[in-house]
Structures are given as structure tokens and as C-alpha cells.
């Protein structure tokens, strides 16, 4: 009897382990694995998105007609490997970025939760916004380097097209010469520098702040995205939770992740276009340059129209939706929990 009683007490003690702390290492692993798996699957589409968002209409001409046209032209010009330009830096930094985002949301929810009360929507949004704020530490330099590599092929191709390399008579802003030299120092007409070379030149020219070009726009994108995504996913996923095991089915969680990411992604796409253009260190010949968020938004509206703020939106949906769907799949199978040997009753 004594052994049975001790066993019950141990079981009850295990079930009382705090969720806020016991699951964090596992969630770091889950976030890292989700990021790597997701990026590996959707990176070519992300490259197409970057090129579509950066292209400008010059004298009524545009380089790419749509998503498919961009994909085909890139593959023809650079081969299949060209579709994975910037993959190395992205897959390297996506692990800590996703871990910070997912763990950050869980931590903020843990500390904002009032005992015995259901978390209000404003607290859920605050937790999500906090996670978005934390992730830009990695997101900004990661995307800064990735965008240079992804867009380099577009600039090279543009120079080869008759009439596309001429400079139109429109006002352009002067680029920071030190930042421009940092990119062009290792760039020729046909060769793109590596992410390491770009990072080193930026550090030499502007210090660590050179890697955080476009930080303001990144904050304007990532904080609202997380404020929309995390609460929306939590409420949608709660609709499918089964009382027997306290979890939703894999299919339900996957679809909820995709749907929540779709809504959040569309909501912030205009800021994503601005961020992408601001982070580009060197525009193609004849394209506008920008001095800041307001200048960029004004020029896009004036010369390209409001529809330009949704350039690459279809690509972004094809990137973000499966990326977060995959993240939910990793959480569903509990890879991190399995590797760390965390009992399911703790989760």
C-alpha cells in the first residue's frame, strides 16, 4: 500500500510541474526544427517574393509579369541553385529566430496569465507583440543579408534587357555611400558576394548597426503580425481541442496555423514591401532609392500606385502559411519533448 501511495504522490507531483518553464527547452527545439523544415520547403517561393517586391515599373516596363514568370526566368538565368540564393544565411539564422518568436510568446503568456482566469484578448495580443519585438534581434540582420543575395540576380538580368537599364528622369534619394560601397565593394556585373562578405563590409562601414538597416520597418511588420497570428491561432485551435487528451488533432492544428498566418500575412504585406525595399543596399539601374519609411511609402504610392503595396502577396502567403503550418505539425508530434524526455502530462 505504501508503494501505491508513493506512486500516486509522485504522479500528482509530476502533473503539477509548471508549464511555463518545463516546456521552454522543448519549444526551443521545436521552433528551431520548424524553422529549418519550413525554410527548406518554401525558400524558392520566398526568393520570388523578394524579387517581385523589389521590381519597379520603369517607363511602363516591368521585368516579371507574375509569380510564375519570375520563377521561370530565375530558373533559366541562374539554374535551380539560383532559386536558393541566400538559403545558407537564412537556414542558419531561422533556428534562433523561430525559437525566440515561439518561446517569447509562451513566456509572455505565462507571465501575463492571471491565476484562475482566462487570458483576455488584449493580453494575448500583448504577448504576441512582445514575441515579435524580441525576434527582430535575429530577423533584421537575417533578412538584410538574405535580400541582397536573393535580389542580386534580378539586377544582373535587368542590365541585360534592352531599355531596362536606362535611368528615367524621376527624383531619387541619395543612398548612404558607405552602405552602398559595403555591398558593391565585392560585387561585379556577374558576381554576387557571399553573405559573410556583405556582413563584414557592413560591419567595417557602419559597425553592428549596418546589419540593422530597415529595423523600424521590420518592427512595424513583425509586432503587428505576431499580435494577430498568436491570438487568432490560439482561438481557432481551441475549437478543435478534444477533452480526452486536451489537444487538437494534427489536421486541425495545421489548418489553424495556415489560416491564422494567412490573415496576419495579408494584414502586414504593405509594410513588408517597404521593409524589403529599404533593406536593399543597391537598386538596379533606373530604380528609385529611399531615405526612410515615409519616403519609400510616398514614392511607391506616387509612381506605382496603391496596388504595389501588395506586390508578392501571393508568394508571401505561399511562404508564410505552410511555414507556420509546419511549425504546428512539429509541435503536434512533440519532437522537442520526445528528445528531452519530457512527460506529456507536463505539456
TrEMBL record:
GO terms for molecular function: L-aspartate transmembrane transporter activity; L-glutamate transmembrane transporter activity; symporter activity. Pfam families: Mito_carr. GO terms for cellular component: mitochondrial inner membrane. Its main location: mitochondrion. It is a multi-pass membrane protein. Residues 1-20 are annotated as: Disordered. It catalyses: L-glutamate(in) + H(+)(in) = L-glutamate(out) + H(+)(out). Solcar repeats lie at residues 22-111, 119-239, 248-337. InterPro entries: MCP, MCP_dom_sf, MCP_transmembrane, Mito_Solute_Carrier. Keywords: Membrane, Mitochondrion, Mitochondrion inner membrane, Phosphoprotein, Repeat, Symport, Transmembrane, Transmembrane helix, Transport. The keyword Signal does not apply. It comes from the Eukaryota. Gene3D superfamilies: Mitochondrial carrier domain. GO terms for biological process: malate-aspartate shuttle. Belongs to the mitochondrial carrier (TC 2.A.29) family. Responsible for the transport of glutamate from the cytosol into the mitochondrial matrix with the concomitant import of a proton (symport system). PANTHER family: AT03939P-RELATED, MITOCHONDRIAL 2-OXODICARBOXYLATE CARRIER 1-RELATED. This is Mitochondrial glutamate carrier 2. It comes from Patiria miniata (Bat star).
Amino acid at each position: 500500500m505504501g508503494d501505491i501511495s508513493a506512486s500516486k504522490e509522485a504522479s500528482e507531483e509530476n502533473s503539477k510541474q509548471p508549464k511555463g518553464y518545463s516546456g521552454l527547452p522543448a519549444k526551443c527545439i521545436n521552433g528551431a526544427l520548424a524553422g529549418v523544415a519550413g525554410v527548406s520547403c518554401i525558400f524558392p517561393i520566398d526568393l520570388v517574393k523578394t524579387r517581385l517586391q523589389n521590381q519597379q515599373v520603369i517607363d511602363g516596363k516591368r521585368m516579371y509579369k507574375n509569380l510564375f514568370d519570375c520563377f521561370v526566368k530565375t530558373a533559366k538565368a541562374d539554374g535551380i541553385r539560383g532559386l536558393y540564393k541566400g538559403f545558407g544565411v537564412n537556414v542558419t539564422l531561422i533556428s534562433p529566430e523561430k525559437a525566440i518568436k515561439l518561446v517569447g510568446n509562451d513566456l509572455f503568456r505565462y507571465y501575463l496569465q492571471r491565476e484562475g482566469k482566462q487570458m483576455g484578448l488584449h493580453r494575448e495580443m500583448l504577448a504576441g507583440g512582445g514575441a515579435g519585438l524580441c525576434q527582430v534581434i535575429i530577423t533584421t540582420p537575417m533578412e538584410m543579408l538574405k535580400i541582397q543575395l536573393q535580389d542580386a540576380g534580378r539586377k544582373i538580368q535587368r542590365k541585360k534587357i534592352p531599355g531596362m537599364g536606362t535611368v528615367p528622369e524621376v527624383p531619387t534619394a541619395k543612398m548612404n555611400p558607405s552602405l552602398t560601397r559595403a555591398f558593391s565593394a565585392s560585387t561585379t556585373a556577374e558576381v554576387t558576394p557571399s553573405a559573410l562578405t556583405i556582413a563584414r563590409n557592413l560591419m567595417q562601414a557602419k559597425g553592428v548597426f549596418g546589419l540593422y538597416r530597415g529595423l523600424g520597418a521590420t518592427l512595424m511588420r513583425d509586432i503587428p503580425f505576431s499580435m494577430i497570428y498568436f491570438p487568432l491561432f490560439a482561438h481557432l485551435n481551441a475549437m478543435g481541442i478534444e477533452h480526452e487528451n486536451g489537444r487538437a488533432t494534427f489536421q486541425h492544428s495545421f489548418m489553424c496555423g495556415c489560416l491564422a498566418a494567412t490573415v496576419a500575412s495579408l494584414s502586414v504585406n504593405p509594410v513588408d514591401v517597404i521593409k524589403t525595399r529599404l533593406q536593399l543596399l543597391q537598386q538596379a539601374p533606373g530604380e528609385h532609392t529611399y531615405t526612410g519609411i515615409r519616403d519609400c511609402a510616398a514614392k511607391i504610392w506616387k509612381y506605382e500606385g496603391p496596388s504595389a503595396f501588395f506586390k508578392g502577396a501571393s508568394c508571401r502567403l505561399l511562404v508564410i502559411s505552410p511555414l507556420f503550418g509546419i511549425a504546428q505539425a512539429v509541435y503536434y508530434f512533440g519532437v522537442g519533448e520526445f528528445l528531452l524526455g519530457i512527460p506529456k502530462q507536463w505539456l
